[in-house]
Write a structure and sequence with these properties.
This protein is of the alpha+beta class. The chain has 13 helices and seven strands. It has helices at residues 2-11, 14-77, 80-103, 107-136, 140-227, 243-275, 283-300, 303-319, 323-339, 349-367, 391-403, 436-443, 459-470, and strands at residues 346-348, 371-377, 385-387, 410-419, 422-429, 476-481, 485-493. It has a five-stranded mixed β-sheet. Helix 5 (140-227) runs parallel beside helix 6 (243-275). The longest helix has 88 residues, at 140-227.
């Protein structure tokens, strides 16, 4: 059963998973709200009924007092309006008593109501007799006697009403205590359900986030390794068959295709090296061959598939608010797009600097505080052109060979300035430095091909292309001391594109 549920869950898309989650939460919260409001409404209605019952009993007491006063006024002044008031008061008392009887609860209240009814019959009888005698104006002594009896009965009735109110209040007190206990229990139940739903939501959110972010982190890490030249990344396995599963399978296929392409390229490179061994001695032919090899790699890679895949990863991480992952993927995408561009042409220095920033962002996330960067430029570089991929290999060399092996890490600084109509670009690091023998190998054109980090273009390649582009062998210089650091200086007369 559980395996069947898991299997179905893995097949559900991310959108539907989120819809199921939020729908469940909304239904639970709505049910709690409905239950609480319904119970609160019941409590208020019960409280209102009790309050109305007290009010009605008190109203009956007031009406009895008013009735007694009205009958006294009539018998004293014999005004017709007082008699009408008396009759209206009698009707009001009877109506109110019916309401009290209707709302009565318990044997005590019913007994008191029967006593009040019986007393009212005697009271009304004595009042009627007194009115008749008073109208006929005979036997005045009997008239006073009946008035006295009516007033006495009224006093008894008022005492009964007082007792009735006391009994009602006593029973209401018990009811209020019971109501308070119910409210307390309901509050505990409601809070318990809310806490339970909160914990379930947190658990689901954490599990869902881990299931969603774990494959994305693996994809991001694998992408970084590929960008650093490690094409032998492990396959990324995702159990679900939703968008992440499709993305992981596509990435695995892309990685396998890329390894195949690179292996084919290496095979072709070996054959070409054997066929053109003598020609490679010529610096210019060597440069052309490197560019041809790069173009051959570019033509075999499907950028559309690669960028779409990275964009899919980026959008998914943005949906999960994984900002760092999104930025890393975007930087990697920019690096790949730039590396697959047309490298036979020159580019603005500003564009070359922007791609350096993307590369440095990835490296800074990788090495954290072990590597620091500083870029200073005090001039307009939008219209200054240099060969494409000139600075990145130099910065990469400073990090990989200079700072990365250093235990405490280090700092890379890039300075761009203009002096005496010449542009100076300095790449400075405080890494391990380069020995004099190594520097001699570099400037004597004996530097071995770089194993490649991102671009697979070494220092020798950069130096040769700068010499050819600016027609100046002094355009590229390296100064270094072991354990102190290295300074690479590129200097040239400002060169703009034709037509600018």
């Amino acid at each position: 059963m559980i395996k069947d549920i898991k299997s179905r869950w893995y097949k559900v898309s991310i959108k539907n998973k989120l819809l199921i989650f939020f729908t469940t939460v909304i239904v639970c919260v709505s049910w709690i709200s409905f239950y609480s409001n319904n119970e609160a409404y019941k409590f208020v209605e019960q409280f209102k009924d009790n309050l109305n019952s007290h009010f009605t009993i008190n109203k009956l007491f007031v009406q009895l007092q008013e009735n007694t006063q009205v009958i006294k006024n009539y018998l004293k002044n014999m005004k017709k309006e007082d008699l009408e008031k008396y009759k209206e008061s009698v009707n009001s008392i009877n109506t109110t008593l019916e309401q009290v009887e209707k709302n009565s609860k318990g044997m005590k209240m019913n007994a008191l109501i029967r006593a009040i009814k019986n007393s009212l019959i005697s009271y009304y009888r004595e009042c009627d007799i007194a009115i008749s005698i008073r109208k006929d104006m005979y036997n005045e002594q009997n008239y006073y006697e009946h008035v006295y009896k009516a007033v006495s009965i009224s006093t008894y009735i008022q005492n009964y009403v007082h007792q009735l109110l006391y009994v009602s209040l006593s029973e209401s007190s018990l009811f209020y205590n019971e109501l308070a206990n119910k409210v307390k229990i309901m509050r505990i139940i409601t809070f318990s359900i809310i806490i339970l739903i909160f914990l379930l939501c947190m658990a689901f959110g954490i599990i869902f986030s881990n299931l969603l972010l774990a494959p994305i982190k693996k994809l991001a890490q694998a992408s970084i390794e590929i960008s650093e030249g490690n094409l032998n990344v492990k396959k990324i396995w995702v159990k679900s068959t939703d968008e992440l599963g499709i993305l992981a399978n596509s990435f695995n296929k892309m990685s396998a295709n890329l390894r195949t392409l690179v292996n084919d390229l290496r095979t072709k490179s070996i054959v070409e090296n054997k066929l053109h061994e003598e020609e490679l001695k010529n610096l210019k032919m060597q440069q052309l061959l490197k560019e041809a090899k790069f173009v051959a790699l570019q033509s075999q890679i499907n950028p559309h598939f690669l960028f779409n895949t990275l964009n899919t990863i980026s959008r998914t991480s943005m949906f999960e608010e994984a900002g760092i992952t999104t930025k890393l993927i975007q930087s990697l995408s920019n690096l790949l797009r730039y590396s697959l561009g047309n490298h036979t042409k020159e580019v603005p220095l500003s564009k070359e600097l922007n791609i350096i920033k993307e590369y440095l962002y990835i490296q800074q996330y990788r090495f954290k505080d072990r590597i620091k960067f500083d870029i200073k430029c005090n001039m307009d570089i939008d219209h200054i052109y240099i060969p494409c991929f000139t600075l990145q290999p130099l910065v990469e060399n400073a990090i990989i060979h200079g700072i990365e092996p250093k235990e405490k890490g280090g700092k890379v600084r890039i300075k761009i300035m203009k002096k005496n109509n010449k542009v100076f670009i300095k790449i400075i690091d405080n890494g391990l430095g380069i020995s004099k023998e190594r520097l001699q190998h570099i400037f004597n054109h004996k530097e071995m091909n770089s194993k490649g980090h991102t671009t697979m273009i070494g220092i020798k390649n950069v130096m040769n292309r700068l010499n050819i582009y600016f027609n100046d062998e002094d355009s590229f210089k390296i100064k270094s001391k072991l354990r102190l650091g290295t300074v690479v200086v590129i200097s040239f007369v400002e060169k703009k594109k034709e037509g600018e």
